[in-house]
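Spend some time on this chain, tokens included, and walk me through the fold:

. . .
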Amino acid sequence: MPFGLTNAPATFQCIMNEVLAPFLRKFVMVFLDDILVYSPDLASHLSHLEQVLETLRAHKLYMKKSKCSFAQLQVEYLGHVISGRRVSTAGDKIEAMLKWPVPQSVTDVRAFLGITGYYRRFVKGYGCIAKPLTQLLQKKLFQWSSEAQMAFEALKKAMVSTPVLALPDFKESFVVETDASDIGIGAVLMQKDRPIAFLSKALGDSHKHKSIYEKEFLALIMAVEKWRQYLQRQEFIIRTDHQSLAYLTEQNLHSELQQKAMTRLMGLQFKVVYRKGKENSAADALSRVGHMMAIQAVSSVQPQWIHEVTNSYATDKEAQSLLARLTLVSPDAHGFALENGIIRYHGKIWVGHNSAIQTRIIAAMHASPVGGHSRQKATFHRVNNMFAWKGLKRDVVTFVQQCGICQQAKHPHTHPAGLLQPLPIPEGVWRDISLDFVEGLPKVEGYSVILVVVDRFTKYAHFIPLKHPYTALSVARVLYDQVIKLHGMPQSMVSDRDKVFTSTVWTELFKMEGVQLKYSTAYHPQTDGQTER
């Protein structure tokens, strides 16, 4: 199969669905190249196999004999072991989950929940057991806690002891048992008192504050929505331990939740039956299994640099004045507040005038695995989201510019300057000249700068002394008095990109004279080497 091409799996699945369309869900199931043919007896099974194989041959699709098995009473299909009357989990998958190492990152947690979530219908109370792990996916900073370790071990233990589920028989009626508690909801789909599937979900913060009636009603609606494909064929029974729900079809719908939920039950034939809680043990256990994962004590971890920040306040005069003011009024009118000994500015940790701590914070947000040596803007936003101090952006820009790894590994995001163009060969005397300044000389009678003017044809040069400060107008006057009046107006002038030569006065003056101004490449003195020397 060409899995390397874009959308190849989806395209191949569409081909298989189209080829085997007459047999799908009658005696054939197909997922990509896995074809399952099921039959009630051997005689019909041979007939079904013959029809499938002839259809595949007609469309020039062939199977490898070593990967096929025929007339099996039990087969492993998509991670499940399927037999005539039951479904269970595959042994190799359970063994892989049992040997799964402790996650070290959010990606590892997501991978573990992915493989266990595939078998969640086999596990009682999966949602409540896995809640401490799913909460790790919502936080930006991964922190493995004792609660997460307990959930990790409990989930592996639950996966090892998964029950064997019965296959649904659509000739028999289905029974849905539901229950809810303060921490979660649970439901069981059954036939003849044998479980077919389990449903468990931990309640979020928005649902924990609902009344017990709304929680029980929510469990009922979620169970029906989950197993609608089983229940819509015939009448089914809903068992609940909340007596008021037994009269659901006779109640007036007052709340918005009832009105929206009842629209999902339209078209279904069901009967709600009250059952005492102690008799509704399976669903009750699913909704209450989360108490084993409940947090009985809260512990917090405080980084060491937090203590360094608070300790730095002792030697910072501005921090001392802020502490004295915030002790009386917190927060103040300027957005400063005092929380657990830490000064905050608009909710961010305020760092005093301590360059060592500031540098450590920027390094942690830039050079650590969290930062990944990102550029100035990304590093600034990452630091600015949590910390505040005067000159933060300037410090971040300076740090990133001086980062050795970034200078070696990052390439500039600008277009290449192109090939360097040599200066044209001059055609006459004093037609093409070059100019440059020699600065940093000791003062002699107030002069400390020399303007060098070189004729590119004869190499004749003029050395004109200048005093600071000089402007474009004063340099132009000196050039006219000591060069142009002797040799005439040149056709072109070559110079670097000094502010004098790029000023508006200079460019407009020589533009009127018809002189072509040529500037050397930035940071490339070789363009005008003779004048530079």
